[in-house]
Amino acid sequence: MPDYGHDLQVGTFLTPSNARPEAVVDLAVRSEQAGFDLVTFQDHPYQPSFLDTWTLLTWVAARTSRVHVAGNVLNLPLRPPAVLARAVASLDLLSGGRAALGLGAGAFWDGIAAMGGPRLSPGEGVTALSEGIDVIRALWDASATGVVRVEGDHHRVVGAKRGPAPAHDVPLWLGAYKPRMLRLVGTKADGWLPSMGYLKPGDLARGNAVIDEAAAAAGRDPREVRRLLNLTPGGEGLLGDPGDWADQLLGLALDDGIGTFILGTDDARLIDRFGAEVAPALREMVAAERAHRGSGGADAAAATGRSARALAARLPDIDYDAVPPALAARAVEPGDREYAQVRSSYVWRGAPGLVLRPTTPDEVTSALAFARRQGVPIAVRSGGHGISGRSTNNGGIVIDVRGIDHVEVLDRERRIVRVGAGAVWGDVAAALAPHGLAISSGDYGDVGVGGLATAGGQGFLARSYGLTIDHVVGADVVLADGRQVRADATEHPDLFWGLRGAGGNLGIVTSFDIEATELGDVVFAVLVQQPTDLAEFLVAWGDLVERSPRELTPFLTIAGGGPTQPAVAQAYHVWAGDDPDAAVAAIEPFLGLAPVAQQQAQLAPYAAVVAPHHNRHAGQARMTSVSAMVDHLDPATAGRVASLVGSGRLQMVQVRSVGGAVNDVPADAMAYGHRTAAFSLLGYVRAGAGAPNEWDALAAQGVYLSFQTDDHDLARVFPADALDRLRALKSTYDPENVFRANVRISPAG
Question: FAD-binding PCMH-type domain: which residues (predicted)?
C-alpha cells in the first residue's frame, strides 16, 4: 500500500532492566528531551530481571511532561482486560492524555503458565485478544448507557459499570504477524506494531494488504490504522551510520506506510543523535516527497485516523479538510469516539458539526477565523457547566477553550492572579490555596472560568468579596476580526467595561487578571429544615441574611412543596474566615426559623468547598431555568415563590445571597447593573410545565444572564443605559454580530 499520509512520529523501545532501575527511567526522560514522541517498554511479567512494565509506565509518565508512553506490547494473558482498561484510562487521566495501549495475544507460554496464566493455542490467543479488545472498548465508553456485557470464551465481563473514560482517544495497537491477527488489526485496532527483526522481505506489503482488506470489509478506511515499526540498529532498515538512516527509512514511510518508527536501543548517545538528526531529516524528506507526489494535501488530511463512518458523518456546510493544521489533531467530529464527551453542555445535548480545541490565543484566532468562513452557528465553551446551555449548538462549530487552563500568581503582594479562560474554578481554588488566596467563584468547582468571569460570578464569598467580575482587573481578548487585544482600565477601557457582565457578546476572552482575597480556611455549614409555612420562612430567612455580618454568605435550595410532599429547605452557609465562634454566632439564629432535620458544620479550606469533579457533560440536566434579581425577600416575593413551589410547576428554587460587597459597586461601573438586589433567584421548571407566568412579576427588576435558559427581554438583563452602551460596543468590536449565540445584543444601527 502506498503512503497512508499519517504524520511522522518517532519513539524509543527501552529494556526495563531492574539491575539499575533509575537507568531506564533516565533513558525515557532523555527520549523526551531528544524530541521523541513516544517511549515504549517490552512486557514480560515472568522475567525476574525486568521491572514490571505497568509500574514503570506510571513512573515514567510522572517523570515526563510531553512524551506518550506504551507497553510494546502488553501481555494480555497476564493482564485481565477489564482491570487493564481502567488502569490505562487512569494513567491517561493522570498524565493528561499521554497513554497508548499496545497489546499482544501472548507468547512464551511456559513463562505465562508458570505465572498462573492460561496456556492458549495460537487460535485461542487471537480469540482471547479479540474479546479483550471488546471489554476494553466497552469500559472506556463511559457515555454509553447500561452496563458492560461481554460473554466470551476467555473473557467474561457481565454487569461491570462503564468508565472511567480516558482523557483522550487512547490508540490501541496490536503486535501481529499471522493472517488472523492481521485481520483483527484491520477490524478492531488503531495500529499495527510489528518488529522488523521478525519480518521477511515483502511481509510489510503483504501485512498491509491483509489489514486493508479487513478494514474495508469492516466499513473502515484503511488509513484509520496507523502502521508502527520497531527497529534495531544494525538490523534491516537501520544499517551503517545514523547519518544514512533517514534515507533508508524514507522508503518504509512512503512505500510501506510506516507512520511511527520506534528505535530499539539503550544507548543514550544514539537516542540523542536519532532525535537531533535522523527524525528531523526524515520528516523533511517525507514532506518534500509527499509534495512532489501530490499526496500531502487531501490524502494527508483524510488520514487523520477517522473511519469511513466518521467521514460519512461530516456535514456539508463545514470544510473539514481546511481545518488549520495546528487545530486538526485535537478537533473532534461527529463520527469520532470522543464526540460524545464534547458535544453537549451540562444542561443541553448538542450536535455540533465540529468541536475545535485551541490551546493558545493564536489558535483561538485561527479557530475563530475558520469558523467564520463556514457560515454556521458558533458557540464558545469554557467549562460547559452553564445553566443557559449556550456553549453548544446543532450543526455549528464549538470553540472549546478548556485547553487554556493556566493559573499563575503574578503579584502575591497585590494578590493579582492570571487565570486561563478554560480552567474550572475548583482547580483555580486548589492552585491558590497554597498561597493563602481565593476568588469568589460560584458554588460548584466544575464551573468554567470564561463563562462566569464575563457574566457575573455569584459565589460563596459574595457578601464579603463581591462578584467575580468586581475583581477582574484585565483580560486578554480575541475579537471578532481576529485581533488580540488587552482590555483593562487603560487599554480599551470601553471594552473592559462591557466584558464584565456581557463579555460573551464581545469577544473570546483567553485569560483574566483577577484580584484575589486573602483567605485560608472557611466555616462551611449545611442546614436542612422543614418549614411549615414556606412563605413565612423565606421572609424571615431573607431578613436574617441581610442583617448578618458580611462574612456570611448563605445559599438556599428549596425542593418539594407540592400537595403530597412537604417543602425541604437546604442552606449552605459559608463564613469567610477561620473564626468558628464568630461563624457559629452568625449561623445559630437560622436554626430557629424552622424544624431542623440535619445540621453540620466544619472548618475547611475554601478549595475543599468548591472542589472540582471534572464530570463529563452529556446534557444530563435537561432542564429549563428562569431567573430573577430581587431587592428583598418581602412578603409578596416570598408568597409568589412559595405558591410556585407548592403548585409543583417548579421542581426546585435556589436563592443566592448577593448583597453586601456586591452592592458597594456603582451600577454603571460595568455592564452588570443589578446593584440593589440582595438576592438572586433561580427556578428549575418541571419538565413539560413551561415557564410560569407568575415568575414575570419576580423578574420585573431584572434577571441574571447565566441563569436564564431561554431568550428573554434584554431590558431585564441590562439597565437601559447599559444596553445602549453595549449596542454601541457591538458596533465597534463586533459589527457583524459574530458573537450572537450568547444573548442577542444587536450592534447599534
Answer: 348-519
366 and 358 Cβ atoms separated by less than 8 Å: yes
Residue 432 falls inside a structural domain: no
- Convert the pLDDT of each residue in 177-186 to its tens digit: 999 999 999 9
Mean pLDDT of 202-213: 94
Q: Are residues 352 and 215 in the same domain?
A: no
| Residue 686 maps to a domain | yes
Domain assignment of residue 612, given as a range: 521-720
Q: Which CATH number fits the domain that encloses residue 336?
A: 3.30.43.10
Task: Say if residue 489 is exposed, middle or buried (CB neighbours under 10 Å; 0-12, 13-18, 19+).
Answer: exposed
Model confidence at 298: pLDDT above 50: no
> 97: phi > 0 → left, psi -120 to 50 → alpha, else beta; which?
left
Asked if 478 and 401 count as a contact pair (C-beta separation under 8 A), the reply is no
Sheet with strand 508-515: strands edge to edge: 407-411, 416-420, 508-515, 472-478, 484-488
**CA 471 – CA 451 distance, rounded (Å):** 15
Terminal-to-terminal C-alpha distance of the chain: 60
Is the pLDDT score of 236 beyond 70?
no
Binned at pLDDT 50, 70 and 90, residue 452 comes out as: very high
242 and 221 part of one domain? yes
Sign of CA dihedral 660, 666, 670, 671: positive
The H or E element that residue 368 is part of is helix 361-374
